[in-house]
Amino acid sequence: MLLSYLRDRLRLTGTKYGCGGGGCGACTVMVSRYQPGTKTILHYSANACLLPVCQLQGAAVTTVEGIGSTKTRVHPVQERIARAHGSQCGFCTPGMVMSMYTLLRNTPQPTMEDIREALGGNLCRCTGYRPIVDGFRTFCQISSFQGSSFYCPACVFQGLPPQLFDQGDLLPLDPTQELIFPPELILMAQTEPQMSQRFIGENIVWISPVSLDELIQLKADHPQAPLVIGNTNIGPDIKFKGALHPIIISPTRVQELFAVTRTAQGVYIGAGCSLSVVKALLEGLVQELPEEKTEIYRALLQQLGNVGGQQIRNVAVSVGSHLSPTDRQVYEVVQGLLVPSGRPLWSLLALGQILLNKDFLVGFGKTSLKPDEIVLSVFIPVSRKWEFMGALRQAPRKENALATVTSGIRVMFTEGSSVVKELSICYGGVGPCTVSASRTFFLPTNRPWNEQTLSEAYTVLLDEISLSPSHPGGKVDFRRSLTLSLLFKFNLQILHKLWEMVRTGSLLDLSEEMSSGIRPLPNQLQPGIQVFQPVVNGQSVDDQVGRPVMHHSAISQATGEAVYCDDIPKTDGELHLVLVTSTRPHAKIRGIDVTEALQVPGVVDVITSKDIPGKKFRTFTGVDEELLAENEVSCVGQMVCAVIADTREQAKRGAAVVKIHYEDLPEPVFTKKSYFQPQRTIERGNVTQAFEEVDQVYEGEIRLGGQEHFYMETQSMVVVPSGEDRELRVYLSCQHPTYANSRDSFKQGVLSCQESWRGVWRETNISLCWRRAWFSDLLSRPRSGRAVRCVLERGEDMLITGARHPVLGRYKVGFMNDGKIIAADLHYYANSGNTADESVLVVEKVLLHLDNAYNVPNLRGHSVACKTNLPSNTAFRGFGVPQSMLVTENMINDVAMKLGRNAEEIREINMYKEVSLTHYKFQFDPKNLLRCWDECKEKSDYDSRRQAAGEFNQKNRWKKRGLAVIPIKYGIAFSEGFLNQAASLVHIYKDGSVLVSHGGTEMGQGIHTKMQQVASRELHIPTSFIHITETSTSAVPNTCPSAASFGTDANGMAVKNACETLYRRLEPVRKQNPTGTWESWVKKAFLQKISLSATGYYRGHDLYMDWEKQEGQPYAYFTYGACCSEVEVDCLSGDYRTVRTDIVTDIGRSINPSVDIGQIEGSFIQGLGLYTMEELQFSPSGVLLTRGPSQYKIPAICDIPLQFNVYLLSDSDNPHAIYSSKGIGEPVLFLGSSVFFAIKDAVAAARAEAGMDGPFTLDSPATPERTCLACNTDFTQKIPPSRPGSFKPWALNIP
């Protein structure tokens, strides 16, 4: 593939490996081709991980390095994403840059819709997308920057609120200065004859014909050989499923496959035309032809805009499922529209013609074509008068996701009437191939299109499309409901069109209430507002503390020059490591046969537990955890052995033939049954007695699913032998280097290694750190003496590393009729997986935050870490708090519903109001919590919008709006006091430059940038003098993990301490020459033999928690916040849109507002994903089914709030942290639950309209499936429930 060619052969590592399947956009490049027919250059974005190098003959490929660099000239696209603070970990940034760059090459002055579409195939886990959009918005021809986040230094002097970046001095975009298409490629295309090509690889022969006759002959000679143009199916199948195709035919140069011919009856589209080409063609036809002739074209466009990202649409072919039974990205379009058209839709074969009807598609990705048949083109007819088409779909994500259900419906009416002449209905997603509802569409024929006819059709349809409760993909009730509701949506469309065309007394137009069923959800992005405190009057211009300073690595990330773990150049003789994991959830290992693996060419060794000298386990949180399973496996994905080879491909082939012999043990456990110790309980007041004295008691529960970290850079390590004393330099993507570095991670008698660390925003399995470090030590020493590299594939990473703990929360709450909660008893069951890892610490933090912002006088909590046969779950941003508080807030919500009041009223009644003690007897002042709450309601205009939402819901039957305001009180720092210390090392060089080392890991959260600002203030010099070196245990030993939102607090104080020491040392020199420069003082100090190097140390807070006494001070302080979100929900499909979000947070005095606001926005969007869309699914045998972006959906640009406002609380101080700041990395993630509760509010409105009041169950995440079923519309009520225990579900219900 092009990606490996760029990275391994050309050493162009700016193009990143994110998923390997075209689902994340990290590997985006621009491909340019000369079109001899039109003498134009075609530029399009594409995923390098899917582009075969063999296919790029005559093309120019532009990577992020090619458009600009710090060594030459930074391109405006690179500058603007950096200046707008649109880069945090930076791993996705090159892909974002290339998507935008390609758009600008084609459209120098794009619209916001162009930008949104261009970035639709790019994922980001850090920023929340808003700053990326704001940076690229500056390229729009007409932009309103009012209220959006641009920083202008003059604002402060003019008395205006400071902004995040100044768009006045951005580099201008000059299209005339872009790279030209290589003239030699134009000359080659014009003069050189086309010759067939044949590339012979180790396992595959790639053939590229140039004529149709040659293609036909090749297909006749090799009928089983797939035809590949877009490679959106064959490539992933080879990579992830191990599919073997000895011969591949690539007809990208057969011109007949790309021809487009228009006739009066319709248009013939070449089978090789990409979806982007088809989309542009259909858009032109819709504009040109009369409306009555474009029904099918407009229906197709509805689908095409949602198939894949822009990069996929640029290469996926228009009829991929016909050209070859592949390209599943196009499959849903074909199944939903072309089949039910009912017209002579002909696919022209090289050997004849075939009718594209319901019999054409015979399975998922399979057609009725014979192996040697080839599709030349597809004919799409114009529609006729009185003929209507509808293409409707529902997908797990609004865009760039394969549909759960698609529908293609066509109806033909008798002219001038509403009598049905012809009807066809087809569905995708309810069977292995397209399902034609033949019995249903015969029913309305020759009958008027009215409610009675449709009512009968629903009954027949429900009986005709029946799914087994164990149907692959699950969501059976939802899928069946969608078949009805999508038909109903089509019905509403038709009723409106008939009224427009007939306008007789017998036909009435849709009422406003009913028309909501076909009105699309809002999708127009609006500029957001970001408000923060200005710096104090008189602060030096060189003092950058409190100013929105750009991330120190942003430019290098945007240019592709930032070096990540797998970007480190390979050393001579370097080996590659691939892990072999268990395929059984609970079994004894009877033997491991590595004979065949060792015979694979290039394989050097296979490491099993027997090869580990000395201690084979590590004790963590009091529980021994094996490095490699020796006698027994306890989950699918547990590491059993490792294969090392000369190349990654050889190691993978060796791993594939390792044979592990198992003896299955009794039924594995996937939910709560046994527990890791200790279990924790905490109580204040007398809960049991209080329940006897309240007006009402209610019991409820909520389930919260797990969440995959989905950091863009997968877990990686590079280990290089260094020096003469068996030293190692270890590069490891980890936030706790010292844990992996500690002596007992390695075999006895070996000196601890020297390590350097690079990281991206991750908080993941700590035990995995020492496992990889142990591997590195073991393999890089006597067994090989060579460097070792291990980079997990996305699917491996998701399988092995664990996720956020799924939690079952149960509660009993006693309250008065006025809304005051008197007693609450909460029980938390966290699914920990097969090892303890940090689970006990997580469930402790769950209990410490169960009160959230509420003063419940009688409060009891009990939490346990359940031991199951799933991969071990682990630390994740928030560390149990998002699970804990969701249960509490759901309890508050249920109390409100029992009393028939808004949840916000109950929240206000029960909030801490004055200086109080928490349930663990820690005193705090909630003043700023209340300020956040009040300002949030004020800034969001909550009261008037609440009233407006009520009016909206009364007028709209099928769309409902909901609002929620959620507070948070989040404890900062480690409850284990020794983890709060930090150290630093600062050097001043003779030229005045400063090198700062500290113990924090840069994961994108901006800790390096903030340390630069701290050093700048303390040394009184500009930040340009200061360089932050990568975190290294050889420079700063005994580091504590960068976690608990305490990295800046601890390391900032350590850097401050070192800089203060150095500045004091320079005091005599400064006094001797008070008008001198920094450089002159430093030079003079050196001549006077004054040490210019100092260590810094911060002891940290002495925090603790005594679980026996149930009291302590586990946190240094609290970060407060409140968030108001409003959503609009489609009750028929469960889809929703976050209309607006307003966040107010108290973070003291921000050291860097741009970094902190970026953390707030990114954390919120990650929380939105947790609570509304990210869903881990396990098979009944414990196999993780969601192992990549095609199955596991994180928020994309289409999911961000349409208006996203962030306000930092003004006039706030915090004496417990550096410069009166506060930690902010984790707290706001929970505020993403405001979207969950807004959805629940909207669902409650829908249920109330159906006569259903009171509390109801809506588990997290509130996916479209759960939302739709909870709305309990007429259509969901028609679905008979499956009897539990009568079938084996497709996926487990976790927790």
UniProtKB/TrEMBL annotation:
[2Fe-2S] cluster 1 binds at C19, C24, C27, C49. The keyword Kinase does not apply. Residues 199-385 form the FAD-binding PCMH-type domain. Residues 1-67 form the 2Fe-2S ferredoxin-type domain. PROSITE patterns: 2FE2S_FER_1, 2FE2S_FER_2, FAD_PCMH. Keywords: 2Fe-2S, FAD, Flavoprotein, Iron, Iron-sulfur, Metal-binding, Molybdenum, Oxidoreductase. Its cofactor is [2Fe-2S] cluster; Mo-molybdopterin; FAD. FAD binds at L227, V228, I229, G230, N231, T232, N233, I234, R393. GO terms for molecular function: 2 iron, 2 sulfur cluster binding; FAD binding; iron ion binding; oxidoreductase activity. This is Aldehyde oxidase 6. The lineage of its organism: Eukaryota, Metazoa, Chordata, Craniata, Vertebrata.
